[in-house]
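Supplementary Methods, section 5.1.

A reviewer requested that the exact input to the structure prediction be made available. We therefore reproduce it here, unchanged from the version used in the analyses.
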Amino acid sequence: MIRVSHPTGELYFKVDSYPGKEWKDAKQSLEDQLVSILAFLELSGQYWPKLHAEQKKAEEARAEKERIAQALKRRKDEEYESFKTLLGKSKRWGKAVVLRTYIDETESRAAQENKLDTAMVEWLAGARKKADWYDPFTETYDELMDDVVRL
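The structure derived from this sequence is encoded token-by-token as follows.
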């Protein structure tokens, strides 16, 4: 970049960008320094493409590292969701087992107490249907429970 300032009677040539340098009319005239100036400009002209290539390479490496990190995060999130589903289904299965055990015990006690009437038989059938609806292995359809989320 060439700057125009207040006239000082001194002529100079300055490169502001890195690596900066300045040449002045002093012991050696600016004209006599042209070879040095041109050599510097040529060398610094080689510097910028290399710098840009290095920056591009570094940006690509950073982007790849970010892509890998995001892919890992997605995998972790998917794995966590899968685990939560697994845990939820295992809890539901355990509750379905307890529910069926309770239903069987209720039937056994009703039979012992001679209370296995039509209403009790219907209740037991309905309760078993609910257990089948809730069990993650069977998940049978239940019209009345169709829009209920199994927890």
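The mean pLDDT is 89. These observations are discussed further in the main text.
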